[in-house]
Amino acid sequence: LDSKFHIECLPFFRILPALEPIVKIWGCFLLLLFSFSLFQLSIGIWYYKTCTFESKLQIWNIVDGGVGSLLTAIELITLFIAANKKNVSNMYPRLWWQFIQLIISIFLIVWFVLGNYWTYKVFDYYMLHHDSPCFMLFILTFAVIVVSYVAVFNLCLFLILCSVFVTKFSYYFSMGT
Q1: How far apart are CA 144 and CA 75, in angstroms?
Q2: 135-175 and 95-121 are packed helices; what angle lies between their axes, rounded to 10 degrees?
Q3: CA–CA dist 69, 8 (Å, integer)
Q4: What is the sign, positive or negative, of the torsion defined by CA atoms of 96, 101, 103, 104?
Q5: Is 148 helix (H, G, I), strand (E, B) or coil?
Q6: Residue 10 in contact with residue 28, Cβ under 8 Å?
Q7: What is the pLDDT of residues 107-155, one digit of tens each?
Q8: pLDDT digits over 30-80, tens only?
């Protein structure tokens, strides 16, 4: 591969200075996550106060999408600032900022569990009542949850494979082979 190889998911990534490909991959992942959160927010707003059977699904989509897109937008801004300073290793200079991100992440995990409960609680009803006006809200919410589980599974698989890969190569490099 050429030493000037860059991974770019969108054309505006060209405004970033020449960064490590892993940083650009992280930026692409954040953009994907941001668009996913905005989609979830729009689902909740679109069906707001139209479904009375399980009204918590709209609120769950609005809060999860809104807080998720806010957190992802802040991550993207932090990445752009660090990239423009050409100091990606110093992306989070303040400990209080990491604490705020931790609190928001814990909230999102608890909120995700609540959303799972509310969605699976009405699963049987919507599987029998396809003509319900809220059926599409249920299907989209269910899809968001399934995609979230798939993303977490893929992330865990990626981390396991990376740790095996790094362990394997560190062993070979330490042997001088």
Answers
A1: 21
A2: 130
A3: 21
A4: positive
A5: helix
A6: yes
A7: 989 999 999 999 888 888 888 877 777 888 888 888 889 988 998 898 8
A8: 888 899 899 989 988 988 888 777 788 889 989 999 998 988 888 888 777
Q: In 13-134, where does DSSP find H-type helix?
A: 21-46, 56-84, 95-121, 123-128
Separation CA 66–CA 43 (nearest Å): 11
Question: Which tokens is 135 given?
Answer: 């059926």
Token representation of residue 51? 């479904």
Burial class (CB in 10 A: 0-12, 13-18, 19+), 122: buried
Cβ neighbours, 10 Å, residue 27: 23
**What one-letter code names the amino acid at 68?**
G
Cα separation of 61 and 51, whole Å? 13
Quick one: which of 63, 59, 35 has its CA closest to 147?
Answer: 35
